[in-house]
């Protein structure tokens, strides 16, 4: 489970051979890691500078090598080791489904190259160990992996440690790129402004390192297929990766469902056995939550609207002022609300609503309820012991919120003879069965219940809650804005993705002459879009909608475009301009079909793992016209969903696609042919066997999914 | 020129004699007498005085003070007539800035020059500029308690032994203070001032339980209200409020509305705020529960420990650096620190394990089984135990994933008992397991591993070693009871001083230390500034935080009640029980008036709610200023470019005396 193991996971599915300078790179890279602060890093002596230069050079060398490799992918020539190469070379191989994928996965390789270098530093003996580890991973993953398809609730696979190739694939397929917060910052290789190479040197360095780190992480990303129940009793399955928080998953679902995206939508977990339920907070890591469920769990995840989720931000007075001045009406003007929120959430510390009162507490193991006087404080829930006053010093701690989640208890009157049905439950997230460690409390009425639940959430999550809300509002307003913007948007997308590309290029130390004009154009577009945006009431509102889509795109772009870019540099540059709108439109219309239609060849590929390195042209020649489209699919994360766009894609040489496209189709076929067999064949060990399983699972899910949406 | 006279010596113009006392001539000296007419302006009078004194010195800070009227004659172009000065006026020619002895929020004394002629608001701003505390509007001055109060205390008051002198400090003319060697430039003049800066920006580590015990503690709301009667009025000068040269005053954060706390610039401010918070907690001015007290104690312990080694200049520098940067440079140092490549790889790729024979105990209902020896392997976040070492390849007796579990120390040093109690969550509930270690070292390394694992981290985490050290040093704390000689450093002093006297009495050190240790594990990784900020935040989230109490009599009520003034609301509190009777928020406030004749504050809220009260424990003007001050502070904008609207402040707080 360490980095080395993960990095090596690439090896099994092999297509191209990449020789990387190992020893040189590894320590340098590591040193580089210590200064991603870039320009900000102070105290860096000239020595440091020098090192950085070295790293830079090495990076570009490495990338250059890769470019060459990409070019020669089909030809199967192994790149002659560069002169600087040290004796200790470490060969490792990476498998790809096809050329396009290989391109998009190339970034992974950078990283993997790094990792491989790390590994290469070890002796060969150690290499063997790593191999062994790897295989053990596979067997593990096989063990943990239940049949993928979905059982009653949300079934999930442990795909951790599965060969990266697959992961990479998923990534490509996952249409709405995980708008992962973690992702937001580190990922974008694109420096904010395209500057000259020299100016950007430090920035680029930092970016590269960030990218590398990101890739490192990505290498062991765990993914689950989660079945989400919709409020119309249908279900949707979607792929959730380890880094995604509830917000990301919601965004995914928004795209799939065409709902109104308002802030009340939430993921809602239900424990039928305990009769408890709660909504996920937007910042919570979904996989983490789901991992606490037992394998045979009946728990479900729902996608529905819950007004309670952000009620406190819509009407803070009901929570913050409720107990005070009784004359205070339920109504409050917006300005005062804002003021109240500001006061409560934006200070040095968050203010937890003052809340105290008698609640019923279920006694351990009995169905009897005892009335006690409870107080909520930021540090926990307290009660007043018998015969004591409610001054702070006399209070006894009932519970603190660390390692606790709060749930609503449903129908407890029936189940536990609760005095009312307004119950809430506090338990450790991992507890799934009845236990003395679960605390049951019962309120007199619905209002009190809401106050307590909300109060506890505020005490537990603090300002995060408010941030979540603000993000949700942003998302909602964005959604409403989108309708109008559909026509304009593409430019934005194009612009941002392009910028990304150039950034990468520079980072790699290769200058693409054809790019700048296009980029400028794109930027203009972007600006225009911004202007056109319907400016909402205030400045911040108007800004956010714009920035949001961009970052959103960036993420996607940052994942994908760089490789094509490099490729295009290697192959020959083509006018990028036309492509942009296309890509954009694809992105935006992609709502209905989130999972790209599984590329037909893929399905074919999987079952027959061809023997090592043998080329099997006839089998794999994809139907001629699809070549192009299939490549598009792979490349474009949000597959052009509606058929028309598909068609257009395949007809026209697409820009983004096109970057890939330039090499004549024939060539692509070639490469595909060569690669795929390899990817299947190379790992004679567990990898090969593990992979098809996964892939077919995935396919199933995809197809199912597709069936749902279409 | 005034003073025309006839041959007989009678003055024939309208001139008269003005007597002016000049301190520089000595206390016994007769006042100077000047011959003036009513149309002489003040500047002219001062010129005459200087001429007459014939002492060569810088008189530029001097001004005339009219004793009867308690008035500074600062407008030099005004004539005596305009000021209404007559021959009976007694004037003093005296410096506008005089030294005062300030007790800072950290209870230490400092001597500074303060303006005696400007309103206290400005005087405080001046003092804070010297001390490098931003947002001086949040602070103000109080009179020190009367002598008789002081006598109750037996020993010397904390910190009075060494008083720091900053009276000689000259501030740079520019408003911008350039940091020099990590501290504001004016502190780097001499070693003495540097020491002073250290005192200001690093919390004092020499505290003993006695210090806390000796401090007067308010035991009820009425006593808490007393301190608020001592605030000086912000809109009048120190001189006008009969503050004398070298008098002792307290400098405190008065308004609990801390704006823009920024570790980069606020080293002193945060430290002083932390100190005020710490004392409020220790003296139970702000009440906290037992659990909260343990967290406060742990934070104090942590801050104390870090402060021992802290270099103020370094903290300032460090704070300037981005977290990422510093983390990375640390990493760099580590990586370049000579370990060979393979070692590094080892570190990167292998996760340390612990394996040993430990005694394991699983309490179950109706079993009396005790501890049983097992071979225990701790890998990543999982503990597995086997019947014996030889069986370690087979199935473990049990495997526990410690992620999210609760780790509680169960240690008795004198009994040589080193137990770790684990509450491990599982789908069925929590399972309880005790691990018993042989000695401290073993205990520390396992305990540290458990703690990290509970947070989902492995022993490969960089904090593992420091965690082990922490635990060992805590064990040391417990050990250092009777036999060990009391070492001068703070660690040996035990943990008693970290909690308020109530809890000092309630718990024996033996009980206290493990609890603090338990709380400490959650804060052990904080940096010094972070820890202080955390303390301040925890303090702020106490329900009692930021409420200033006054004993008042509401209109129409016949008994005294308590009025609590907080930064966003007024609270009417039952004096006897302490229950909140009613709360009014400023945001609903329409207007408030003070009837200075009957000393009554009348406030009108939305929906025609009218409240009127007179203040019993403090001057009506203090209550008025408190409310006005909070409203003023809420008008501060985040726009840093804009200065404070001082006029508004006086308008809101000054009442009829202002202007």
What does this structure look like?
- The complex is a heterodimer of chains A (710) and B (659).
- Chain A is α+β, with helices and mostly antiparallel strands and 710 residues long.
- Chain A is built from 28 helices and 14 strands.
- In chain A, the strands form 2 sheets. Chain A has a 12-stranded mixed β-sheet with strand order 4-3-7-5-6-12-13-14-8-9-10-11, sandwiched between helices.
- In chain A, helix 4 (99-121) runs antiparallel to helix 6 (164-173).
- Mean pLDDT of chain A is 60; it is low at 1-51, 70-111, 117-130, 132-193, 324-328 and 487-692.
- Chain B is an alpha+beta fold.
- Chain B is built from 19 helices and 26 strands.
- In chain B, the strands form 5 sheets. In chain B, strands 16-15-14-13-19-18-17 form a 7-stranded antiparallel β-sheet. In chain B, strands 23-22-21-20-26-25-24 form a 7-stranded antiparallel β-sheet.
- Classes of the chains: A alpha+beta (710), B alpha+beta (659).
- Chains A and B meet through helix 1, helix 2, helix 4 and helix 13 of A and helix 9, helix 11, helix 12, helix 17 and strand 23 of B.
Radius of gyration computed on alpha carbons of chain B: 32 Å
Strand content of chain B: 15-25%
Distance, first to last CA of chain B = 33 Å
Anisotropy-based shape of chain B: elongated
Q: Let me know the number of strands of chain B.
A: 26
- How many structural domains are formed by the residues of chain B? 4
Stretches with pLDDT under 50, minimum 5 residues of chain A? 1-51, 70-111, 117-130, 132-193, 324-328, 487-692
State the share of residues found in helices of chain A, binned by percent. Answer: 40-55%
Average pLDDT for all residues of chain A? 60
């Amino acid at each position: 489970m360490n980095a080395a193991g993960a990095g090596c996971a690439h090896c099994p599915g092999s297509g191209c051979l990449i020789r990387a300078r190992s020893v040189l790179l590894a320590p340098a890279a590591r040193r580089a890691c210590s200064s991603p602060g870039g320009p900000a890093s102070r105290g860096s002596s000239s020595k440091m500078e020098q090192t950085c230069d070295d790293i830079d050079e090495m990076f570009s060398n490495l990338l250059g090598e890769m470019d060459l490799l990409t070019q020669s992918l089909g030809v199967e020539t192994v790149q002659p080791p560069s002169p600087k190469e040290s004796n200790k070379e470490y060969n490792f191989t990476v498998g790809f489904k096809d050329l396009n994928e290989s391109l998009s996965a190339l970034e992974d390789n950078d990283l993997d190259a790094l990792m491989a270098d790390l590994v290469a530093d070890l002796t060969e003996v150690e290499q063997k160990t790593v191999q062994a580890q790897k295989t053990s991973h596979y067997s593990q993953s096989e063990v943990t992996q239940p049949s993928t398809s979905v059982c009653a609730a949300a079934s999930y696979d442990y795909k951790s440690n599965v060969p990266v190739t697959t992961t990479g694939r998923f990534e490509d397929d996952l249409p709405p790129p995980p708008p992962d917060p973690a992702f937001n910052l580190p990922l974008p290789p694109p420096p904010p402004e395209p500057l000259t190479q020299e100016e950007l040197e430090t920035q680029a360095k930092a970016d590269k390192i960030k990218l590398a780190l990101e890739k490192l992480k990505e290498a062991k990303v765990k993914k689950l297929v989660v079945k989400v129940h919709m409020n119309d009793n249908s279900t949707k399955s979607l792929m959730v990766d380890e880094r995604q928080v509830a917000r990301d998953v919601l965004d995914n679902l928004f795209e799939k469902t065409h709902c109104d995206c308002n802030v009340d939508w939430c993921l809602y977990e239900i424990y039928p056995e305990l009769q408890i339920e709660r909504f996920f907070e937007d910042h919570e890591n979904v996989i983490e939550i789901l991992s606490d469920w037992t394998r045979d769990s009946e728990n479900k995840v729902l996608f529905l609207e819950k007004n309670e989720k952000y009620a406190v931000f819509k009407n803070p007075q009901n929570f913050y002022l409720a107990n005070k001045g009784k004359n205070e009406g339920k109504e409050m003007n917006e300005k005062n609300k804002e003021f109240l929120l500001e006061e409560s959430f934006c200070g040095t510390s968050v203010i937890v609503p003052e809340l105290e009162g008698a609640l019923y507490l279920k006694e351990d193991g009995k169905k009897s309820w005892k009335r006690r006087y409870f107080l909520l404080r930021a540090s926990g829930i307290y009660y007043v012991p018998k015969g004591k006053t409610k001054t702070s010093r006399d209070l006894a701690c009932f519970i603190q919120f660390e390692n606790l989640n709060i749930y609503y208890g449903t129908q407890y009157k029936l189940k536990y003879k609760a005095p009312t049905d307004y119950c809430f439950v506090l338990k450790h997230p991992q507890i799934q069965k009845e236990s003395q460690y679960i605390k049951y409390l019962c309120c007199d009425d619905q209002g009190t219940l809401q106050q307590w639940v909300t109060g506890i959430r505020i005490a537990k999550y603090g300002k995060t809650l408010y941030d979540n809300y603000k993000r949700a509002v942003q998302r909602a307003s964005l959604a409403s804005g989108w309708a109008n913007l559909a026509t304009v948007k593409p430019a934005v997308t194009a612009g941002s993705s392009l910028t990304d590309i150039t950034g990468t290029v520079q980072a790699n130390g290769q200058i693409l002459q054809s790019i700048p004009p296009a980029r400028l154009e794109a930027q203009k577009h972007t600006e225009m879009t911004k202007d056109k945006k319907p400016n909402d009431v205030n400045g911040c509102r108007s800004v956010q909608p714009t920035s949001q889509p961009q970052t959103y795109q960036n993420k996607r772009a940052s994942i994908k475009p760089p490789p094509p870019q490099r490729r295009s540099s290697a192959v020959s540059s083509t006018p990028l301009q036309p492509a942009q709108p296309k890509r954009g439109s694809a992105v935006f219309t992609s709502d209905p079909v989130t999972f790209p239609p599984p590329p037909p060849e893929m399905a074919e590929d999987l079952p027959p793992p061809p023997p090592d390195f043998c080329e099997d042209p006839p089998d794999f020649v994809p139907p001629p016209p699809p070549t192009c489209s299939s490549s598009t699919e792979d490349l474009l994360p949000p597959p052009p969903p509606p058929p028309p766009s598909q068609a257009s894609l395949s007809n026209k040489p697409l820009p983004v696609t096109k970057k890939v496209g330039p090499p004549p189709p024939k060539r692509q076929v070639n490469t595909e042919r060569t690669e795929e067999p390899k990817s299947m064949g190379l790992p004679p060990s567990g990898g090969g066997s593990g992979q098809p399983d996964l892939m077919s699972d995935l396919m199933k899910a995809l197809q199912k999914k597709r069936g749902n949406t279409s | 020129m005034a003073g025309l006279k006839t041959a007989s010596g009678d003055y024939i113009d309208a001139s008269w004699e003005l007597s002016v006392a000049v301190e520089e001539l000595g206390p016994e000296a007769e006042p100077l007498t000047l011959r003036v007419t009513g149309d002489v302006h003040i500047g002219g009078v001062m010129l005459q005085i200087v001429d007459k004194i014939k002492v060569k010195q810088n008189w530029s800070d001097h001004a005339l003070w009219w004793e009867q009227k308690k008035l500074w004659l600062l407008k030099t172009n005004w004539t005596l007539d305009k000021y209404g000065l007559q021959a009976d006026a007694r004037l003093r020619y005296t410096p506008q800035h005089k030294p005062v002895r300030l007790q800072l929020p950290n209870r230490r004394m400092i001597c500074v020059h303060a303006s005696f002629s400007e309103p206290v608001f400005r005087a405080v701003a001046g003092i804070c500029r010297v001390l490098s505390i931003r947002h001086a509007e949040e602070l103000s001055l109080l009179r020190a308690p009367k002598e008789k109060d002081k006598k109750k205390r037996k020993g010397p008051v904390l910190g009075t032994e060494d008083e720091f002198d900053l009276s000689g400090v000259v501030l740079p003319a520019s408003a911008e203070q350039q940091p020099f060697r990590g501290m504001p430039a004016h502190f780097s003049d001499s070693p003495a001032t540097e020491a002073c800066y250290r005192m200001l920006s690093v919390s004092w580590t020499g505290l003993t339980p006695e210090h806390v015990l000796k401090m007067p503690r308010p035991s009820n709301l009425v006593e808490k209200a007393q301190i608020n009667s001592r605030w000086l009025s912000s809109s009048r000068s120190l001189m006008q409020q009969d503050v004398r040269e070298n008098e002792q005053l307290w400098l405190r954060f008065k308004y609990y509305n801390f704006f823009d706390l920024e570790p980069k610039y606020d080293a002193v401010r945060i430290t002083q705020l932390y100190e005020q918070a710490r004392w409020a907690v220790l003296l139970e001015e702000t009440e906290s529960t037992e659990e909260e007290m343990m967290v406060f104690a742990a934070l104090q312990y942590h801050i104390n420990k870090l402060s021992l080694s802290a270099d103020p200049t370094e903290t300032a520098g460090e704070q300037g650096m981005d977290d990422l940067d510093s983390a990375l440079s640390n990493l760099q140092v580590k990586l370049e620190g000579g370990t060979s490549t393979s070692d590094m790889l080892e570190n990167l790729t292998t996760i340390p394990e612990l394996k040993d024979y430990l005694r394991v105990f699983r309490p179950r209902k109706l079993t009396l089984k005790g501890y049983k020896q097992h071979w225990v392997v701790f890998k990543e976040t999982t503990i597995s135990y086997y019947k014996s070492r030889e069986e370690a390849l087979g199935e473990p007796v049990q495997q526990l994933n410690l992620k999210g579990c609760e780790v509680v120390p169960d240690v008795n040093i004198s009994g040589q008992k080193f137990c770790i109690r684990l509450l491990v969550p599982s789908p069925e509930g929590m399972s309880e397991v005790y691990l018993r270690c042989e000695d401290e070292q073993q205990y520390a390394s396992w305990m540290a591993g458990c703690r990290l694992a509970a947070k989902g981290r492995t022993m490969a985490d960089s904090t593992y070693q420091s965690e082990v050290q922490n635990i060992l040093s805590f064990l040391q704390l417990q050990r250092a009871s009777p036999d060990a000689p009391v070492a001068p450093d703070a660690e040996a002093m035990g943990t008693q001083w970290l909690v308020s006297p109530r809890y000092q009495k309630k718990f024996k050190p033996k009980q206290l230390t493990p609890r603090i240790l338990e709380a400490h594990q959650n804060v052990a990784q904080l940096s010094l500034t972070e820890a202080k900020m955390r303390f301040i935040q925890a303090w702020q989230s106490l329900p009692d935080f930021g409420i200033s109490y006054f004993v008042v009599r509401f209109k129409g009520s016949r008994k005294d009640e308590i009025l609590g003034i907080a930064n966003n609301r007024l609270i009417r509190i039952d004096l006897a029980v302490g229950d909140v009777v009613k709360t009014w928020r400023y945001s609903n406030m329409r207007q408030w008036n003070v009837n200075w004749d009957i000393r009554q504050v009348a406030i009108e809220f939305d929906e025609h709610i009218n409240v009127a009260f007179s203040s019993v424990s403090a001057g009506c003007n203090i209550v008025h200023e408190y409310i006005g001050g909070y409203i003023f502070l809420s008008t501060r904008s985040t726009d840093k470019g804009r200065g404070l609207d001082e006029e508004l402040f006086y308008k809101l707080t000054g009442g009829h005396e202002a202007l």
